[in-house]
Automatic annotation (TrEMBL):
Keyword Transmembrane helix attached: yes
UniProtKB keywords: Membrane, Transmembrane, Transmembrane helix
Bilayer-spanning residue ranges: 153-177
Extent of Basic and acidic residues compositional bias: 271-282
Superkingdom of the organism of origin: Eukaryota
Residue ranges, annotated region (Disordered): 201-282
Protein name (Swiss-Prot/TrEMBL): Uncharacterized protein
Comp. bias intervals (Pro residues): 207-221
Biased composition (Low complexity): 239-255
Amino acid sequence: MASVNVTVEDFSPLISFSAGGWIDSSNDPDISLYSAKSFRAAKSSGAEASFEFTGSAVFVYGGFRSDYGPYTLTLNNQTVNGNAHSVTPRVGLLASFTGLSETTHHLHLANAGSAMDVDQIVYQTNSAAAPGKVALFTQRDESQATTKPGMDIGLFIGIVLILASVFIGVLATVIFLRRRKSRLIPRVSAVASKLSIGNVEKGKAEPPTPPLPLQKPPSSPEPKAQTPSWQKSEPRLFRSPSTASRSSMRTSMPTDRVLNRPTRPPQLHLARKESTNRVSRD
C-alpha cells in the first residue's frame, strides 16, 4: 500500500498546546515565510505541545530567528535537542523521526529557552484509515475545528478595504461626470447664444436682424392689344336702321336745300370717306 503525507497546521485542534504558553502570531512581520501564513509561538520557557498520529515517519517544522533558543522533541522515549537561533529569519525542519512502525505514536515538544514556534507537522502513513491528503493540505477534526481568528480578521479587513475602494472609485466617477456636465452646459449655451446673436463688438452683442417677410414677385402686366392707328381715328359705323327708324330719322334730320334730301351726318360721311381711302390704298 502506498504511503501518503498528511499535513497538520499549527491551528489544527489535533495539536494540543499548553494553556498560557503559546500565542498566535498571525500579525508577525515575517508571517509570509510560514505555511498557510500562520504559526504558534512559545514565549515562555517550559511551554509544551503534544501530537498523536499513526504512521511510519513524522517531520516537525518551525521558525529560526535571532531571539529564538533551544528546544526538545521527544517521540517514543527518543529525545532530540535542537536550537532555533538564526541571524536571518527562516522556516525549517526542527526534527524528524523516520523508520517507525505503522502504529500510534505520541510526539512531545517543549521550549527549553527564550522562545520558539511551530509552523506545521507532517507525518507519513500507510494506514487505510488515514485521510488521503498530501502535504499541501491540512488535516482538520471537523467536530472540533475552529476558524483562525487572525486569518478571519485579516480577510474581513481586506474585503472591507476592497469594497471601500470600489465605492470611493464609483463615487468619484459620478461626481466627476456631474461636474463635467455642469461645466459643459454653460459652454454649449454660450456657443448657441453666440451663433444666434452673431458678431460681438466691444462686449455688446448686436440684436439679431429679423428675417425679411417673403414678398411675391411683381406680376408683369399683360400686354394690351394695340389698336391700329387707322382704327383709332375711324369712327364707329352705325348699323342700318330699320324702316320705322329711317322714317323717323328723315323727319328729324335736316334736309338739303338744293337736293331736297336729308343731310348725312358728318361722322358717317367721314367714316365712309375714310373707308374709301383705305380701299384705295390697298
